[in-house]
Amino acid sequence: MPRIHPTALVDPKAELAGDVEVGAYSIVGPGVRVDEGTVIGPHVVLTGRTSLGKRNRLFQFTSIGEIPQDRKYGGEPTTTTIGDDNVFREFMTINAGTAQDRGDTRIGNANLFLAYTHVAHDCVVGNDTTFSNNAQLAGHVHIDDWVVMGAYSGVHQFCRVGAHAMIAAGAIVLQDVPPFVTAAGYPATPRGINTEGLRRRGFAAEEILAVRRAYKTLYREGLKLDDARAALAAAAGTSPPLSMLVEFLAMPGRGIIRA
Q1: What DSSP element (H or E) covers 10?
Q2: Which is the catalytic residue, given 70, 84, 85, 122?
Q3: Is 185 a catalytic residue?
Q4: Threshold 0.85, pTM exceeds
Q5: Is residue 82 part of a domain?
Q6: pLDDT tens across 213-234, in order?
Q7: Which of 120, 158, 172, 211 is a good FRET partner for 24, with 20 to 30 A between their CA atoms?
């Protein structure tokens, strides 16, 4: 049976795996499903049509699944979907999706959200990301795997941040950030590649060199974006990092950040 503190309010219609823990004064609504190994701390609110995977840990005052902060929301039955092995620190908030988009806000696996971070409606966050304190996502944002969001950084609605990118503390992202790129400033501009992050994740020296050369093609050779994309596609060959970059640039979006 789940271990539920006497002061917690868990709706009888909520579905909790047998080893789930629910801390003091937490609230779990009727549309919530929580898989095994998840620990819900004190003063947590889980509401709406929300699904949490395995081994997540929610610290005090986390709020997940509440209705979107969007004037267009009219009570539609939208959802919030959380994967496995995520950590949500104090006062972290995630809102459900909207009918105007995918109708679901989705978080992958093994992500770390520090205190006061926010994921708005219809966002998609991949795996192994790190959100430092007060990092904020507006609605409809896509964050790919292994992204690092610096403290007090923010991402404009509908933007994309590619895999292994790093957003510096205080940066405000108003356009898409390609994979591997470090972005800083307001508005955020490219400041090189995330070399240290790639090393930590086991990228080979030749792969990092290929990414560095690709960055120069994209940002330092004075090429128009279409010409840079064509040059990168021609150079990609069998290189997984370059293929990832080319695929990202081929997708429609808000345009990429420029120097």
Answers
A1: strand 9-10
A2: 122
A3: no
A4: yes
A5: yes
A6: 999 999 999 889 999 999 999 9
A7: 120
